[in-house]
Design a protein that fits this description.
The complex is a heterodimer of chains A (644) and B (427). Chain A is an alpha+beta fold. Chain A has helices at 6-14, 17-43, 50-59, 68-79, 82-102, 106-125, 130-156, 162-176, 178-193, 204-240, 245-248, 254-288, 308-317, 337-351, 361-380, 396-399, 503-529, 534-549, 551-561, 572-587, 589-593, 596-602, 608-635; strands spanning 295-297, 300-301, 320-325, 381-382, 387-392, 405-410, 421-427, 437-442, 446-451, 462-467, 469-474, 477-482, 487-488, 494-501. The mean pLDDT of chain A is 86. Chain B has 427 residues and is α/β, with parallel strands linked by helices.
Chain lengths: 644, 427
Amino acid sequence: MKLREIPGALDRVQRARWFKVAASIMIVLIVVGGYVWYTVGVENGTFAGADAVLHRLDTSDSINENDPRVQMVRGILSDASVTISAAVAAAAAIAVGVIVVWLGLGITYLVIGLAAALIAGPMLLLESTEVYGKLLLGVLLLAASFTALMQALRVLFSGSGPVMGIARNLLTEAVRMKISLVLIILMILGLAVLPGMLDGDQPLRYRVQSFFQYSVTGVFWILAFLTLAFGIASITSEQRDKTIWQTVTKPVAAWKYLLGKWLGLVGLNAVLLLVSSSGIFLFAEYLRNQPAIGETRAYLATDSAVSEDRFILESRVMTARESKFMEIPERFSRDGEIFQQRVDQFIAKERLTDPNFATTPSDYKYVASNLYTAMIRAYRSIPPGESRLYTISGLEKARNQSSPITLRFRIDSQGNRPDAFYDMTFSLPYSQDPAPLVKRMGLGFYHNISLTPESINEDGVLDILIFNGKVIKGEQGMGIIPNPSTASIPERGLEISYRAGGYRTNFMRVMLVMWVKLAFLAMLAVWTSTFLSFPVACLVSFGVFMIAEMSGFLISAADLYGTTDQKGNIVWVKFITTNITNLVGQLFSVYSDMKPVRRLVDGRMMPWSSVAVGTGVLATITVLLFGLAVGIFRKRELATYSGN
Amino acid sequence: MAVQQSRAKSKTQPVVACQGLTKVFKDFWMRQRAHAVDRVTFHIEPHEIFGLLGPNGSGKSTTIKLLLGLLKPTAGRVSVFGKDPTDVATKRRIGYLPEESYLYGFLNARETLDYYGKLFELDRKTRKGRIDELLDMVGLTHAQYRPVREFSKGMQRRIGIAQALINDPELLILDEPTTGLDPIGTRQVKDLILELGRRGKSVLLSSHLLADVEDVVDRMVILYGGKIRREGPREELLAQRDTTSLIADELDDETIAKIDALIRERSGGEQSLRSVSRPHQKLEELFLDIVEQAKREQAATSGAMAGGATASFLRADDEESGPSGDDLIDSLVNARAEPQADEHPASVEGEAESQTGEADEVLASLLEPEPQPEPATPDQPAAHAPTQSHPEPAPTGSVDDDVISSLLDDAGESERADDEPRGDGSR
């Protein structure tokens, strides 16, 4: 037998029934034997622990069993019994081992285990090679997870119909064809290497955020690229190489063929996402249990109850927060009577000098729009030495919980020079503690202040009084040292965020959203492949993907670009460009608004409602694309490719 | 024979029906570039082996693609089992081997057949059984776990044939099936087609290798430039009515001259012997001899092995041909020089002399009067009727049987008189 045939031969052995039965029996014997050996060791004192003490209680003649203290101790020790924990662990080990064997991966896992023990193990013991040992161990763990999940998926797709057959064939192609295997290996290696690239001197919260940012973004982009490139290649290559002839001349309807391809891609993404998300989650938990800045050990601060780094990590990063933003008061409503009166007054005043001012409806609308923008800008601006009261409502949920809330804000002024620092004073006039809080800050950045939930009134409203300057208490009362220039709060520049859920379930929702996005991309790849050649299908698909990812930016850019010149005259090129850009951006706004990575990094809630809406919209688009693909595919003359 | 007779006379719906079938390829600008198929009309009856012949570019493969729904006709009508070619359910009854083997290179032989079996919704047990039989039949059991991309062209053709049979199809469409196959494989394919035909399958065979087609088809059309040039039953198309050929033991020049003189005398000088030659052993026969020898010596090979018996699931019971009729056909076939489908396909009789001797015996037995000929029943062909599926001497034309008898008698007397030993078997 040739060397390259050995892996195939071993694979056939591990999938043979006789091997599975024999291996299962061996696993049970080894684990049970190990458990018995441990239990005996505990009883005879070889292993310390609650069981050893219990055993001494049982065998000692001088213990009075009727003594209530002895009974209490016995009860405590029984609860802490490690024998029961060992039994649970043994049962779990047997279950996992048998599942792995019956998935046909017994020898594969044995080889991985041997590699871990013989290569990674010694590397971990030496300080100089410890990092590489951890890297290798990470790679082996991810590879083992990937293998098991892929095999489980192949079992799931082992039905006898064409849809399952085609889906399973695509999985086989993914593993055996280089284009996909390279990306899979890249992802696994990248995930394993990333933790080592974090700067250990950074605050723990920044390390966790950096890790989330790079790992989740990297995984999503690699999977998106894999989905599009591999999905398109799988279908277009079959048409080009005529392999598809031998499929469509079988009783396979067009919709079954395309559904099988899509299902295979979605299944592959599910496996890869599960593997990578498990790795990301486990390492994030590992990081969480490292000492933060100001701690000697995890959660043990040196000079306070909780260090600031730990506090921010737990309350703003590894959590799920909801936010409410500053509102524009009712009296500033564009449709309100007061605003309309102000516009009429302004126009009347201007007509004193120019009788033809704003005489047409479009001119009136233009003037009203400009006035509204100016009014809102003025509301958001605080002149030097003055103050402004802002309101944030809808905070009933935040009021009823015990964890602190966060005031997040941003101040713009003087072009946001990097060397300019302002003293801003905050006061909560209607709270129990209205004492002003002075904060020195840089311009153009977001800053955070922690508040107590009691700052919110019974109606769920929080009023914040902001001074553009430093409020000081003098002998003659309160005074203010003003800042040099007007301070502005941009849109979404003043918000209250509060804990609304757990980080772990939020992480799961984020991964689910990513999977839904990838499922949409899979159908995009399938659709373009039905009528385009490989390069053109890639161009179209990647183009749509980029537009979808950047749709938020496109809408903002279109807003800034506008449709008119400086004098208010419509420029047709701008008009067309802006409207098309807006249309395209709105089309994908649901896709881009989900922002799963941003939410995870910032510790923001990905609510089920957003998941449901996003899933519903993307599912609808996916089904539409599927219908288009089936219609096109049925009309195609598959014996021609690219017109040849 | 009864099977073959019933094929021609079947009154059931044609398996394939083309009426005025036309395919014109257009370019990107919708200009007509090529008339690949031009008003082609033919039909294939159930249980018939039908040949689609023509040179390269004559429209054979295009016609097949139109039958399978891979292309849409520009004009005309086509139906398969009475339905449109794109009807999905109809494809359950069809097996297709394209002109090249378009297989998934990353799958091995077993996985390839398993995949196609799933497309037919065969359950696991049935798939496994059929895969084992098909791999044995095409001689790829030893290479079943090798990726298809590592196969030679012939091996890929074999796996292609296997996938075409995985669903035990009623209609088998073979486009250049012997391309890339060695003579052994070619012989096996031809025997397989014959066997499938005997068992009631309909076969559409497309090829430009005329020798491969000639031996097996019942009817054929010959295409050129997308048009049908000739069509009809094989015997009708191939019969040379103005020639008779005789096969005899080695004759000396004097005997040959006497035969020529007799012919001239009987025809009044209008006819004569056109040519006399010593036929050579066919190259195919020599090739098969050498391969057989190598097998007896157990020489190693990593290529395709000789195939096994036809897969049992393809040998469905056929009520029209009872066992006794088939045995008779097989015995007649075995009596000739050609290798058999039921036996080892590469077996060759060996010496040409023994082939000649046996052929003479059969011919003699056919010509001598039978004291009590077996009554022909609907299920049993007459004992002396030769099978149509094997090449045989052309039927006698203008020279009557008396001449032949007299010639043979004269030749026998001449041999007995000379008492010359036979040579080394060469003719």
